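re: that complex we talked abt at group meeting.

here r the seqs, copy pasted straight from the sheet so there may be weird spacing, ignore it
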Amino acid sequence: MPKDIYIGEVSRNEEIRKNFFLMKVTLPYGFVEPMPGQFVMIRIAGLNDPFLSRPISIYSFVRGRMNCTIELLFRVVGKGTRILAGLIKGSLVEVNGPLGKGHFATPTTGNIIFIAGGIGIAPLSLLAQNLCRKVCRSSDSMTFYLGAQSADTLIGFNRVHQYCGRVIACTDDGSAGMKTLVTKAFQKDLRIYDPADTSIYACGPRPMIRALSGILDPEYFCQVSLEEKMACGVGACVGCAVAVKDDYGQKTYKRVCADGPVFELKDIVWE
Amino acid sequence: MPKDIYIGEVSRNEEIRKNFFLMKVTLPYGFVEPMPGQFVMIRIAGLNDPFLSRPISIYSFVRGRMNCTIELLFRVVGKGTRILAGLIKGSLVEVNGPLGKGHFATPTTGNIIFIAGGIGIAPLSLLAQNLCRKVCRSSDSMTFYLGAQSADTLIGFNRVHQYCGRVIACTDDGSAGMKTLVTKAFQKDLRIYDPADTSIYACGPRPMIRALSGILDPEYFCQVSLEEKMACGVGACVGCAVAVKDDYGQKTYKRVCADGPVFELKDIVWE
Amino acid sequence: MAVKIAGLKMKNPVMTASGTFGYGEEYSDYVDLNRLGGIVVKGLSLKPRQGNPPPRIMETSGGMLNAVGLQNVGVDVFIDEKLPFLRRYDVAVIANIYGESYQEYAQVASKLNRVDGVHALEINVSCPNVRKGGLSFGSDPKAAAQVTRRVKAETHLPVIVKLTPNVTDIASIALAVEKAGADAVSLINTITGMSIDLKTRTPHLKNITGGLSGPAIKPVGLRMVWQVAQKVSIPVIGIGGIMTAEDALEYMIAGATAVQIGTANFINPCASVEIIDGIRHYLHENKIKKITDIVGTLQT
Amino acid sequence: MAVKIAGLKMKNPVMTASGTFGYGEEYSDYVDLNRLGGIVVKGLSLKPRQGNPPPRIMETSGGMLNAVGLQNVGVDVFIDEKLPFLRRYDVAVIANIYGESYQEYAQVASKLNRVDGVHALEINVSCPNVRKGGLSFGSDPKAAAQVTRRVKAETHLPVIVKLTPNVTDIASIALAVEKAGADAVSLINTITGMSIDLKTRTPHLKNITGGLSGPAIKPVGLRMVWQVAQKVSIPVIGIGGIMTAEDALEYMIAGATAVQIGTANFINPCASVEIIDGIRHYLHENKIKKITDIVGTLQT
Ligand SMILES: Cc1cc2nc3c(=O)[nH]c(=O)nc-3n(C[C@H](O)[C@H](O)[C@H](O)COP(=O)(O)OP(=O)(O)OC[C@H]3O[C@@H](n4cnc5c(N)ncnc54)[C@H](O)[C@@H]3O)c2cc1C
Ligand SMILES: Cc1cc2nc3c(=O)[nH]c(=O)nc-3n(C[C@H](O)[C@H](O)[C@H](O)COP(=O)(O)OP(=O)(O)OC[C@H]3O[C@@H](n4cnc5c(N)ncnc54)[C@H](O)[C@@H]3O)c2cc1C
Ligand SMILES: Cc1cc2nc3c(=O)[nH]c(=O)nc-3n(C[C@H](O)[C@H](O)[C@H](O)COP(=O)(O)O)c2cc1C
Ligand SMILES: Cc1cc2nc3c(=O)[nH]c(=O)nc-3n(C[C@H](O)[C@H](O)[C@H](O)COP(=O)(O)O)c2cc1C
Ligand code: FES
Ligand code: FES
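got the structure back, here u go
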C-alpha cells in the first residue's frame, strides 16, 4: 500500500488572470513525482460541500528537502473551483495523486508539437518542461501552439517559451498573437511536419480536440488529454467513461482516470 | 422588512480555554442592539456543510461608529461548533439576529441573582452588564453563582465581577471556588433571599435548570434560558418545541426561538 | 412571470412550502409578502394539534429531518386569528389541509370554502409523521383518489394534491388523483428518514423517524416531477431542496409550472424573494418572454 | 470484531459495496485488502456489458448520481481474470450478480457456484439504471422472491438479496425474499434521482436518471434498515451514506449485523479501513466485547 491521501497546505493562491488561479500546494516529501498528464483529485479537508474531489492536472512539481510543491492552474467554472479559488494561504486540502496511468509518451521524433487550448496549457507545460530537461532535446525541435479567447486569458506563454523554441499564440479576438483558432494555426503549418518524424500532444476543450481529429491523418502520432466527470479518480467507479476503439476497432468505454487521461487521438470515438 | 441576514466578518477567534472559543464578529451598523438572552443564528457564508445555522447567545455587543461588534462564547461539542472554531480572522459568516422574543425581564426587586452553568455564562453576562449600566443598581444587589466542571472551564469570572458585587464560583472538582454544584451553592443561600424581593436568572445545562426547579418555590420570580435544536430561529418551523404550561396550566408546546429562549422556570413542564 | 394554476393566479411561480413559512407572519419582517407568488400555510387540521414531543428536528448531510407532527392551531383559529394578517397582502394564500379520515379532510375543506382570503387548497396526503395519518392515504392510489373526491365535493376552490415520495410509483398516484378531479399536484413532500444518537443509542427524534428535506433530496424531487409531468395533464408544482433560482428553473424545465420553497427559508429567510429575482434575471438574460415558455422543455 | 452472516465468516463487519470498489485491485494500493471484512465486487452479468454512454456521474448536495449502467467484464472474465487477484487475499469475496431475466440470474449464479474464491452471492434486484432490469424485480415482492428462489436453486453459497429503496414498503419485500430462502438482505441500493443542466436544458446524465448515493441518503438507509431489521430474522447488512465509523455504528445499532461502504471510497480511498479502526476504537472505549453486542440495540 504505497499510496495514501495527502494533506496539503496551500502556500499560495493567486488570481493570475480574471477567473484563472495559480495555486501552490505543499505536500509531504513522499508525494511521487508526477508524469506529465497526470493529475490530482483535490478537495477541501474535512468538508462535504462540495462533495466530490475535483480532478486538476499537475502544472509543475518540485521536490524540496523536506517536502514537495505542486502548482495547479485552474479556471473557475462552477461551485468546486469557486470554493478552491477562495482558499487562502494556510488552508488545508486533501490530495490524491498523482493519478492517471495513461500519460504522455516520450517522443522519439524530431518534431515535437504541443497544442493547448485555454486551461489545457497545464499538463502540456509540465510535459514541455520535462522533455526539455530530461530528454534534453534542442528546444528548437519543440513548437508550442497556444490558444486562448483573448490576451486576458492567454496563460503560460512565458513559461513554455523557456522550454520551446517556437511558441505560437492565437486568440479568438486577435488581442494577442494571431487572430485564429489554435487548430487552424497548426493546420497551416501541418505540411512541414512529416508524420514519421512528428509527435503531437494536445489538451483543450472537446471541440478543439475534435477539430484536431478532423485535421490530422491517423498516421500522425497524436496524444490528447481528455476530461470527464470523475468520482473516484482511481478506476473503481467507471464513472469517467469515454468511448474509444479497442484493439479490434470496436467501440468500448475506457476510464479517463485510470486508462487515461491521455489517449491516442485516433482511438477516440466521437459519439 | 427591517430585518435582513447580515454578513459578518470574524475579527478574532481565540481558544480561551480548551474547547471554549471567544469569537468577535464585526457586523454592519444596522445590526439591532440585542436584549440580554437574545441570540443569533450563525453559519459559514456560502457553505452547505454544516447545513443548518447554529444558535449562539450574544455575549456582548458594542456599536461603533461604522459597524457593530458582537462577541460569541461557544464550546466545541460537535461538527458545527468544530467548524466555527476553525474560522480564522477575516472569515465571513452569515448572521441572523438578534433573535428571540422572550428575553430577560428587567428586575424590580432588591436582590438580583444569576445562576450560570458552563457556557450558560454567555447570556447572563450580557444581562448583568446591561443591568449594571442601564438599571444602574448598586452592584451589591447582584450576586452571580458561576458553576463549571473545573478551574479550566470556569469562564467569565472576571467579566461578571465587574458588574456584580458578589461572584460565587463553584467547580465539580473543587479546582476553583467551592467544590459543589452551583445550584447547591445557591440553595445554601436561599433563605436570605425573600421571594418578594428577589429576581433570579439562570442559564445552563438542562439538569441544572431541572435541579433549580426542584429547589425553588414557585413564588420566586425565576427566568431561565432554554436550548433546543433549531432550524429557522424565527418561529416558522416549530422545530424547537419545549413543553410549558399555558394560561390554564395545560401542557402546550412553545417555540424556544420565538416564544423564548427565556421562559419562566415555573412554566416549564419536565417530560 | 405570472402563472395560473387551475384558476389560481399568481404573480410569479414561487410559493413558500407548507410548514416552512409558518402562517406568513414569521417571515414578514424579512420578506415583502406581496412579492411572493403564493404562500402555502402550515398544515391545518380540524382540531388544534400539539404536535410531537421534542426533539423534533435534526440536521443531516445537506438536509434535515423533522417530526413536528403537524402542530397547528386548527382550521378555526387559523381563519379567525391568522388569516386576517394574510388578507392584508396581495398574495395567493393556499391552505394546506390534513385529516385523519376522509371525513376530517372533507370537514376541514368545507370550513375553508368561501372563506375570504383563501385562494386554493393543498391536500397533504403524504405527511409521514403521524402514525394513523398521511402515509396510508398518499401511498395508495385508491385512498388518495378518494380523499381528492371528498375534498373536491366540499369546495369551489382549486384543489392541489401534495404527493409523497415514499412510494414505488408516484406517477400512478398522480394519475389517480388527476382522475379523481385534482386541479394540480405538488411534489415532493419529505422522504422518511431516521437519525441515531450514538452516545445514547436512541433516535435523535423523539418520534423515531422524520421527514427528510433540503438539497439532499433535490435529485429525487426533480426525478419525480419529471416522471409525473410526463403522465398527467394538470399542472405540476415542484418541491424539494430548492435553494436557488437555478434549482427552481431546473424543476420548471423538468415540467413544473410553479415551485415551492421549503427548507431554504430556514437557511436564508430571504431565499424566496432572492429566487424570484434570480428567475427574473435568468429570463431577461436569456430573452425568454414568458416564464411558462420554459416549463417542460427538458431535451432528452 | 468477527461476524458471521449466514455461514459467511468475516474478520469484521465492514465490506466495500458493489460498484464502488471495482474488483478490489483498484484500491489495493491504498488499502490492505486483508484488513477488510469483505469485498463485494462490481455487479456481474452473464455477458460483458458496455454500460451507459457518458456522462455517467454528477455531484449533488451531499451525494452523487450515477448511471454507470452496470458496465462489467461479465461473469466468465471475472472468474478468469479478476478472481485470481482476489484469491491472494484473506478476505470474504461476495459476487454481486445481476440479470435481465430469472433465467439470467440463475445462469450467473450457477457459473459462480463452487468457484474457488467466491464466498457468497449478493443479488442486485435493485439497480435502477437499466430499463428492462433491476427495478421491476426489486420493487415487486413476488418477482424478488422468485429471483431469490432461482438463485438459491443454483448455488450452495450464502445468498444475500440487495434491496432497492425505491418502494413503498421495503419490509414487505424483505419478508418475501426471506421466505424465498434468502440468507441475508442488504440495503439500501441507490435512490433514483435526476439532475439537469440549466444551460443546455438536458439531463446531466446521458441516461436521464441515475442512482443517488452518499451521505445525503443516510437517513433513508438507516430508517429502512431499522424497519427491515424489526421484521426479518435473517441478518441485515446496512448500506447508504456511511462515511465514518460513527455512521457504521449507527447502522448496527439500528439492526445491521454488518455494513457496506460505498461512495465514501471515492472521497477517501482509505475510508473502509479507517472505519474498521474507528469501530475497534469505539468498542474499546465503551468496553464492548463483541461487536455483535451492539446490533439492534436502539432504544426507542
Ligand atoms: C484529468 C483532468 C484534468 C483536469 N485538469 C484541469 C486543470 O488543470 N485546470 C482546470 O481548470 N481544470 C482542469 N480539469 C477540469 C476540472 O476538473 C473542472 O473544471 C472542475 O472539476 C469543475 O468543477 P466545478 O465544481 O467548478 O464545476 P461544476 O460544473 O460545478 O462541477 C460539477 C461536477 O462536474 C465535474 N466537472 C465539471 N466540469 C468538468 C470537467 N471539465 N472535467 C471533469 N469534471 C468536470 C466536477 O468535478 C463536479 O463533479 C481537469 C479535468 C480532468 C478530468
Ligand atoms: C438560544 C440558544 C443559545 C445558545 N447559546 C450558546 C452559546 O452562547 N454558547 C454555546 O457554546 N452554545 C450555545 N447554544 C448551544 C449551541 O447551539 C450548540 O452547542 C450547537 O448548536 C451545537 O452544534 P454542533 O454542530 O457543534 O453540535 P452537533 O451535535 O453536531 O449538532 C447537531 C445539531 O443539533 C443542534 N444542537 C446540538 N446541541 C444543541 C444545543 N445544546 N442547543 C441547540 N441546538 C443544539 C445543532 O445546532 C445542530 O443542528 C445555544 C443554544 C440555544 C438554543
Ligand atoms: C419543518 C417542516 C414542516 C413541514 N410541515 C408540512 C406540513 O404541515 N404540510 C405539508 O404538506 N408539508 C410539510 N412539510 C414539507 C414541505 O412543505 C416540503 O414538501 C418538503 O420540506 C420538501 O421541500 P424542501 O426540501 O424545499 O424543504 C414540512 C417540512 C418541514 C421541513
Ligand atoms: C458508481 C456506483 C456504482 C454502483 N454499482 C452497483 C452495482 O453494480 N451493483 C449494486 O448492487 N450496487 C451498486 N451500487 C450501489 C452501491 O453498492 C450502494 O448500495 C449505494 O451506493 C449506497 O451506498 P453509499 O451511499 O455508501 O454509496 C453502485 C453505486 C455507485 C455509486
Ligand atoms: S473516476 Fe472513477 S473510474 Fe474514473
Ligand atoms: S427554530 Fe424554527 S420555530 Fe424555533
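couple things i noticed - Helices of chain B lie at 79-85, 121-135, 157-163, 182-189, 206-215. The mean pLDDT of chain B is 91.
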